[in-house]
Amino acid sequence: MSSNTKSAVVLLSGGLDSMVVAGLAREAGYAIHALTIDYNQRHRIELESAARIASHLRAAEHIVLPLDLRRFGGSALTADINVPKDGVGESAIPVTYVPARNTIFLSLCLGLAEARGARDLFIGVNALDYSGYPDCRPEFIRAFEDMANLATKAGVEGDRFTVHTPLQHMTKADIAREAHRLGLDAGMSWTCYDPTPDNKACGKCDSCRLRAKGFIDAGLPDPTVYG
């Protein structure tokens, strides 16, 4: 890696959104330091997807950090709560919301970025085509960036951090098209919240429904194998 190469920390879950964000960071010329959080989530297949994506994008490093959020619970992804299968909700925050997840994960990205000398963080949050999570909103990202520059040695010394959210105002169809444009195989990514016993996507959870609709709206084939 050239000493002139700029670096970024990318929060890489293994999902379609994080894959596209990582691809956009690489396209922009960043050396990628990929961070995946193994939070003992229900849908652990995405950890394998994250490893495939990091390898494909030639990440400078890929850290899989264990953090057992099942000890906290409070979510259908971290506790024995059924994942809803009755369609995408539009009002209430769903039970698949993990308490403060993006705040926790971005804080870990921030720590890694400061340690590596990177000042750019990338996360695949989206405010248009999502399931109602409060930590995906633009105002949350702005507040976190302000906090990052108040809470770090680099920030207070004027070496500011930027949180990049290139998918913030994209629909899921837009994101599917970006994956296609970047030449990324969407089949490397994993979306389902509640895989079947034979490791297929359930096709019924909010995440599966949004993904499937996105590919239909984009006019692109969905490589997901549904159960």
From TrEMBL:
Gene Ontology MF term list: ATP binding; ligase activity, forming carbon-nitrogen bonds; zinc ion binding
Cofactor: binding comment: Binds 1 zinc ion per subunit.
Full protein name: 7-cyano-7-deazaguanine synthase
Keywords: ATP-binding, Ligase, Metal-binding, Nucleotide-binding, Queuosine biosynthesis, Zinc
Ranges in coiled-coil conformation: none
Source organism per UniProt: Sphingorhabdus pulchriflava
GO biological process, one term: tRNA queuosine(34) biosynthetic process
Superkingdom of origin organism: Bacteria
Family: Belongs to the QueC family.
